[in-house]
């Protein structure tokens, strides 16, 4: 009887901790609602605003890219697509964290910003990274700050890949970019309609 009760308590504790909103790495519950995200994670509102001020990149663009890349999960990695025969080079992706930044690009960000303590599993650092990258995209690829569709293509393909049009034969990527654009528009409407967030 004691062991059964103990097992039940341990199971309840484990289940309760899995969905805890206090877990900094756990995804927010309402991912399609910017107001609900910021109500649940006030620090994320501050982080995206700081990145917006620093880099001139709208909050909704930061959120939409992170939503698409990780579904707001801190320590996520891409699936081993090489094992499924998708990556012909045989090199698994080093993408990691909220922004799914690859090692080389993250190191470039750290060097350029001097943010030596930056961590891909820290939301504020991920938002700043997205802001930094998008600000470079605006300069290098001449993409406006509210053009989420093309920002996502450049984010995925890199500045040079975007310029070369490597995305043109990737229908799945264009679909993903359309989803990011729609999500950014949704977030923008929500943010402007939430008095506590303006």
How would you portray this structure in words?
- This protein is mainly α and 198 residues long.
- The protein has one domain: Lysozyme (Orthogonal Bundle), CATH 1.10.530.
- Helices cover 60% and strands 0% of the residues.
- The protein is built from eight helices and no strands.
- Helix 2 (34-40) packs across helix 3 (42-55) and helix 3 (42-55) runs parallel beside helix 6.
- The longest helix is centred in the C-terminal third of the chain and has 23 residues, at 171-193.
- The protein is globular, with a radius of gyration of 19 Å.
- The termini are far apart.
- 28% of the residues are buried.
- Residues 1-23 and 81-88 have low confidence and may be disordered.
CATH top level class name: Mainly Alpha
Judged by helices, strands and strand pairing, the structural class is: mainly alpha
Distance between the termini: 56 Å
**Portion of residues in helices?**
55-70%
Number of strands: 0
Total discrete domains: 1
Order of helices and strands: HHHHHHHH
Find the CATH topology: Lysozyme
CATH architecture classification name: Orthogonal Bundle
Largest sheet: none
- Please state the average pLDDT score: 85
Shape: globular
Bin the strand percentage: under 5%
Radius of gyration (Å): 19 Å
Parts with pLDDT < 50 across at least 5 consecutive residues: 1-23, 81-88
Total count of helical runs of at least 4 residues? 8
